[in-house]
């Protein structure tokens, strides 16, 4: 019985030492993995941050470019009628939006929703303004109606969108 007792006296301390080593190595590896994770996260942030800022810049530019005064200046020509101007305005808004569609991956869902709402609101304003006019009338009639309808709105979704983007950039960066 004594050899078994001697063996137990050796195995139990050895087991305790082995378990202590296991815990030490496990803790050390966890800290090492956390350090690598933090390093990778910092490197990703270093790469993604400029891209995200660029996305916010591009969408701010998009909102500026589709504001009624800016888009009308770019698209309208003196010899156009209401139907032609309406078509060109809607086409320009959609092209601008489609050109910047990929930026949504770098933005918050709320910011993207506000941008989409601003675009849809402007499309609605253009269509509503054109609805009450003769399609063959001079384009200046549509321009006047769009400006009037834009001024009558209680909330300017483009200005709201720009303000939201600026606030989100300041909050996040």
Number of helices: 6
Class from helix and strand fractions: mainly alpha
The total strand number stands at 0
Low-confidence stretches: none
Query: Mean of residue pLDDT?
Result: 92
How far is it from the N-terminal to the C-terminal residue, by CA?
72 Å
Tertiary shape? rod-shaped
Characterize the biggest β-sheet: none
Structure at a glance:
This protein has helices at residues 2-66, 68-75, 82-99, 109-131, 139-152, 157-172. The protein is an all-alpha fold and 173 residues long.
Your description of this structure?
- The chain is mostly helical and 173 residues long.
- The termini are far apart.
- The chain has helices at residues 2-66, 68-75, 82-99, 109-131, 139-152, 157-172.
- The radius of gyration is 31 Å and the shape is rod-shaped.
Reconstruct the topology from this structure.
Elements: H1 2-66, H2 68-75, H3 82-99, H4 109-131, H5 139-152, H6 157-172
Helix pairs in contact: 1-6, 3-4, 3-5, 4-5, 4-6
Provide tags for this entry.
173 residues, mainly alpha, 6 helices, rod-shaped
């Amino acid at each position: 019985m004594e050899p078994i007792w001697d063996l137990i006296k050796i195995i139990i301390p050895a087991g305790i030492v082995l378990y202590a080593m296991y815990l030490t190595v496990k803790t050390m590896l966890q800290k090492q993995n956390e350090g690598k994770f933090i390093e990778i996260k910092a490197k990703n942030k270093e790469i993604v941050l400029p891209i995200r800022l660029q996305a916010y810049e591009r969408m701010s530019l998009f909102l500026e470019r589709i504001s009624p005064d800016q888009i009308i200046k770019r698209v309208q020509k003196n010899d156009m009628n209401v139907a032609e101007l309406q078509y060109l305005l809607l086409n320009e808004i959609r092209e601008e939006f489609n050109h910047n569609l990929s930026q949504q991956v770098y933005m918050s869902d709320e910011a993207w929703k506000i941008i989409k709402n601003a675009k849809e609101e402007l499309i609605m304003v253009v269509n509503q303004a054109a609805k009450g006019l003769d399609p063959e009338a001079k384009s200046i009639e549509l321009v006047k109606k769009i400006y009037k309808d834009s001024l009558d709105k209680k909330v300017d979704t483009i200005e709201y969108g720009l303000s939201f983007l600026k606030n989100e950039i300041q909050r996040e960066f």
